[in-house]
Backbone:
């Protein structure tokens, strides 16, 4: 990528001096170089193309323009569809880096506000120190929500359990000592740049480390809604989801990870404004139930809790399983489930220039909904026609409101209040969610001076997020690298548009004097009517979508033909191989899924008999 | 009848001590095994084979016996898994578990690399092992592959005694012979069953007594009929797996044989079990204890000897041959049969020399049939020398049998031709065996046996 082109782009976009812009340009370049090849290539091409467009339209090079002239130039090229998308996408990168720079000091201060808690003991061994050959009773691929609880359950039966985890072990020191961007890059797969390809693209961050995505999730805990359980029990014929028996597993999980209603004391204004707006409209709303006992409201869930309050499985299930003898091999990516076509009997994993093989009596696949199908395919046992299909992602978007008073959304609980007025009727779940600047799905509007001033006022911004229960419109393909495709269904687009409206209503009702719609090209609404208009006219491509809850790629059910995994969690056609992660959920669970995933995993694991 | 596959494999490399996670010392590690697989090896199946051998883990276990299982499944499971247990230098039992993981894009490396772990019996990690197949061993590894019929010990001794068996094979000769000795004496008891080309079967045999400084005593017995369908029993002698009883004109004997050592297939297993060669010799009991008495005209020899019980089948004697059995003590033996066929065209070839040396539980060369073509045999009237130079093995055997210590025996072949052999059970023997380990020649042993080698030189007039 040409640094000079990037520097000019940053200079104009953020109305900065060349020197400042160059610093940021270099940071972006560094970041891009760590991204998968295609992403960094696209970024470089994008910047070059903007320069080219400016030359074509104005017959002058971007470098010869002043910041003001540049702004005007960007505005002109934004009138074309392609120019608009391009500038917007590039802006996302810049905001991520710039936002991280601006908030670095406060993030570090907040992270070190309270006394540090010791990390609980987990039996981890880096692949470099692990023998090339080992055997055990149960081998689990992935230490995330599903893998960790499976380990706990089976280690509890006295079995010798090994978890193989692609990511590394993060200590609380790491969270305290590093800036936001570094944490973000390290904690997420592909530096957080995973996307689902489609129109529009969907940003789909996935955690990677000991604890999986629970390391970085927001800690919101919902029990699986009864209507969803009924549907799963009926449609997929999965006995396991019989309400009474399943609720025992839900209870166990909630107890294990310490689920409690969020406390108003640390909630912060972002959540309180949401409650206020909902109350004014008489919408059903309440503080969310969360697995964050002792939450101090540091708002850093998504980049690793510095207070060890948000109780990802690295703080509960994994240490407990470790006490029972389970081991975790870290930085070890499973590249093949060893099998003879009929039976699984271990895995091969690579990492740190080393190759190991572990034989086991039972293999449990819990690499997450985006990775598990690929692991199966790579092992030559993913031939069921539904493997990788049926991907639901629970797509999300956000809306923000400008308030007169200070909101300081980065002080308080990251995800604090749920508004479920339209949950049962429309599958729309609204959650007050504030992310560190630049890291959310909201892209601040404006170019140059306007963008800069928006940035300066960020502390007066309140943010809501909405997720809609979607149809399984996506799939994961690819043997070598998983590629994710997702084409938003018409029905779900309508739901998303309604969600924008509802969020706008809540924000205005809470006293916002302007709402940022998140709709590309129509970013600002000054009143509710304008907002409705914008929402109604929005095209799918204008939305900034993100998703955090991929599920269903190895769905579980009775019918051989349509469900790659049977009602006991076993991969069809392969003995001794189970799946216990988000992949097995038959449809979108309609709520934040971690509790559902863990209860499912436990239900499956508790039935596993090891000979 | 059931078949079995056998081969010999040697893997060497290192092991890393993992007891103490902080320190990790690296030491040499190697093992050498004889693998026995029931049936024919099938790459497209999952099969279990058993093996015995020796392991050396530097600083931990020195040349310890191992027993284990090899699971071969190169195409289905894509692995070859070796697990064995042994007692280390301190007498603590440990186990090795490892497997080659076959990758078809990288066959050379993956078929020859065996990583594994060393654990104690309760599963605690002792160390990590990485051993490789040494490409210099390819020749001996491949040549060690044998497919053969699996047979019980008793069969080895008694097989081919029945009438049906013999009458179905005209022109055959079956021999049981025992040679044993103490400090001063050597003895030879020989039983022969002949199915002449005319279709008659008859038995014959003899006993010979050798004493240093004295003239050897020799007497024959001759009987037409075998009285027992199971064992070799005639009016004058009885031969069972444990007894040698009989009498001739002047000599009477009653001897018990006791031994447990594994048979030595001098010509290779296949030649014996499948009769792939026109003749073959094996030693069912290479080291046995002989006790009892031999009386010669009232003089009694107390027998308390070590010796060997051997078997031959064939079409009669060779044109020229030599034989040696040397007992080196501690179950270590050397067996040599070198012969020139009397068949037309083959008679001008140099002798084929089958050499089998068992020392410290290992056998050299592994495939005696393959090596038979490369040994050199020089024969004079009262001595011979058999020597061989191979990429990783050198053997030099010199035997001298002074005439005064020998008996001369006339044979009559099934085809009616006569042959003569000059035999002694008190020969002098010099043996030297070297092998190459990591490019260095190392002496396996050098031995001189004075007056206690068993040997024979065969000639035809
Ligand atoms: C930013 C964010 C916020 C979220 N917030 C919430 C929330 O508030 N509430 C909620 O309920 N849910 C939330 N989620 C979702 C929730 O965390 C996940 O759905 C859940 O963790 C998925 O569990 P899993 O076991 O399927 O996979 P994961 O937890 O993702 O675990 C999979 C693990 O497997 C490892 N792995 C993958 N491939 C391999 C391989 N080949 N070899 C070895 N290891 C491998 C991965 O590194 C990972 O550690 C959030 C997600 C995100 C991204």
Residues:
């Amino acid at each position: 990528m040409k640094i000079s082109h990037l520097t000019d782009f940053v200079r104009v976009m953020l109305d900065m001096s060349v020197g400042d812009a160059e610093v940021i340009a270099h940071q972006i370049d560094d970041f891009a170089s760590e991204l998968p090849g295609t992403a960094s290539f696209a970024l470089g091409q994008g910047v070059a193309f903007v320069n080219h467009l400016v030359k074509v339209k104005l017959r002058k090079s971007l470098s010869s323009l002043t910041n003001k002239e540049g702004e005007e130039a960007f505005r002109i090229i934004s009138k074309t569809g392609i120019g608009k998308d391009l500038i917007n996408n590039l802006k996302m990168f810049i905001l991520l880096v710039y936002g991280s720079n601006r908030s670095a000091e406060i993030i570090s201060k907040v992270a070190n506000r309270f006394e540090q808690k010791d990390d609980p003991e987990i039996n981890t061994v880096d692949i470099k120190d692990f023998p090339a050959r080992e055997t055990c009773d149960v081998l689990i691929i992935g230490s995330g929500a599903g893998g960790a609880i499976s380990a706990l359950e089976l280690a509890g039966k006295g079995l010798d359990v090994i978890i193989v985890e692609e990511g590394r072990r993060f200590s609380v020191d790491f969270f305290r000592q590093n800036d936001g961007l570094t944490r973000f890059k390290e904690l997420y797969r592909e530096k957080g740049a995973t996307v689902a390809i489609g129109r529009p693209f969907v940003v789909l961050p996935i955690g990677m480390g000991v604890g999986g995505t629970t390391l970085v999730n927001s800690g919101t805990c919902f029990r699986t809604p009864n209507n969803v359980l009924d549907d799963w029990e009926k449609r997929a014929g999965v006995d396991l989801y019989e309400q009474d028996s399943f609720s025992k597993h839900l209870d166990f999980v909630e107890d294990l990870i310490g689920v409690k209603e969020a406390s108003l004391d640390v909630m912060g204004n972002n959540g309180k404004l949401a409650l206020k707006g909902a109350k004014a409209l008489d919408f059903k709303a309440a503080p969310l139930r969360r697995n964050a006992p002792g939450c101090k409201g540091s708002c850093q869930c998504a980049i690793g809790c510095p207070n060890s309050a948000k109780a990802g499985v690295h703080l509960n299930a994994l240490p407990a399983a470790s006490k029972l003898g389970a081991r975790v091999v870290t930085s070890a990516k499973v590249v093949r489930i060893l099998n003879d076509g009929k039976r699984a009997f271990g895995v091969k994993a690579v990492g740190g220039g080393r190759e190991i093989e572990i034989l086991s009596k039972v293999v449990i696949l819990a690499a997450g909904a985006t990775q598990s199908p690929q692991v199966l395919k790579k092992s030559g046992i993913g031939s069921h026609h539904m493997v990788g299909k049926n991907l639901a992602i629970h797509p999300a978007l956000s809306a923000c409101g400008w308030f007169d008073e200070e909101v300081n959304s980065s002080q308080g609980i990251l995800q604090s209040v749920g508004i479920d007025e339209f949950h049962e009727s429309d599958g729309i779940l609204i959650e007050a969610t504030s992310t560190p600047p630049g890291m959310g799905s909201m892209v601040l509007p404006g170019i140059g001076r306007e963008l800069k001033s928006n940035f300066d006022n960020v502390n007066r911004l309140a943010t809501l997020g909405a997720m809609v229960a979607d149809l399984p419109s996506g799939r994961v393909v690819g043997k070598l690298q998983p590629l994710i495709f997702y084409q938003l269904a018409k029905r779900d687009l309508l739901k998303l548009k309604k969600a924008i409206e509802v969020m706008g209503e809540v924000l205005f009702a809470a006293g916002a004097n302007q709402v940022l719609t998140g709709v590309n090209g129509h970013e600002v609404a000054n009143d509710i009517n304008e907002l409705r208009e914008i929402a109604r006219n929005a095209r799918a491509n204008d939305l900034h979508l993100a998703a955090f809850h991929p599920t269903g790629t190895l769905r579980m059910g009775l019918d051989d033909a349509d469900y790659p995994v049977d009602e006991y969690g076993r991969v069809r056609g392969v003995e001794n191989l189970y799946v216990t992660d988000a992949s097995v959920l038959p449809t979108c669970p309609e709520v934040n899924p971690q509790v559902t995933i863990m209860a499912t995993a436990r239900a499956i694991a508790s039935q596993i008999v090891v000979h | 009848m059931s078949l079995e596959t056998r081969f010999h494999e040697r893997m060497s490399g290192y092991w890393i001590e993992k007891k103490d996670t902080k320190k990790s010392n690296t030491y040499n590690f190697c093992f050498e095994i004889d693998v026995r697989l029931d049936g024919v090896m099938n790459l497209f199946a999952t099969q279990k084979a058993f093996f015995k051998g020796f392991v050396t883990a530097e600083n931990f276990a020195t040349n310890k016996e191992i027993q284990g299982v090899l699971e071969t499944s190169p195409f289905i499971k894509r692995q070859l898994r070796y697990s064995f247990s042994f007692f280390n230098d301190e007498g603590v039992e440990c186990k090795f578990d490892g497997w080659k993981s076959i990758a078809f894009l990288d066959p050379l490396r993956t078929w020859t690399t065996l990583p594994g772990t060393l654990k104690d019996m309760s599963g605690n990690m002792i160390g990590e092992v990485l051993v490789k197949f040494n490409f210099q061993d390819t020749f001996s590894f491949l040549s060690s592959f044998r497919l053969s019929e699996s047979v019980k010990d008793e069969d080895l001794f008694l097989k081919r005694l029945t009438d049906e068996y013999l009458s179905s094979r005209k022109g055959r000769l079956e021999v049981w012979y025992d040679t044993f000795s103490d400090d001063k004496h050597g003895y030879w008891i020989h039983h022969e069953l002949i199915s002449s080309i005319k279709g008659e079967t008859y038995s014959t045999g003899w006993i010979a007594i050798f004493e240093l400084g004295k003239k050897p005593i020799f007497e024959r017995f001759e009987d037409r009929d075998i009285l027992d369908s199971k064992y070799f029993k005639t009016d004058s002698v009885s031969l069972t797996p444990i007894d040698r009883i009989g009498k001739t004109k002047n000599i009477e004997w009653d001897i018990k044989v006791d031994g447990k050592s594994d048979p030595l297939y001098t010509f290779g297993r296949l030649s014996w079990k499948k009769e792939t060669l026109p003749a073959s010799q094996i030693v069912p009991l290479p080291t046995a204890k002989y006790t009892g008495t031999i009386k010669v005209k009232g003089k009694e020899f107390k027998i308390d000897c070590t010796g060997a019980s051997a078997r031959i089948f064939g079409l009669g004697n060779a044109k020229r041959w030599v034989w040696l059995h040397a007992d080196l003590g501690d179950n270590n033996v050397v067996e040599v049969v070198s012969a020139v066929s009397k068949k037309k065209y083959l008679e001008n070839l140099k002798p084929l020399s089958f050499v089998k040396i068992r020392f410290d539980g290992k056998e050299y060369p592994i495939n005696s049939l393959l090596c038979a073509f490369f040994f050199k045999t020089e024969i004079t009237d009262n001595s011979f020398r058999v020597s061989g130079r191979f990429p990783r093995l050198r053997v030099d055997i010199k035997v001298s049998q002074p005439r005064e210590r020998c008996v001369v025996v006339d044979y009559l072949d099934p085809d009616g031709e006569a042959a003569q052999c000059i035999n002694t059970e008190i020969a002098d023997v010099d043996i030297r065996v070297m092998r190459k380990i990591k490019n260095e020649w190392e002496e396996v042993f050098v031995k001189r046996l004075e007056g206690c080698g068993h040997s024979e030189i065969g000639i035809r007039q």
About this structure: The radius of gyration of chain B is 24 Å.
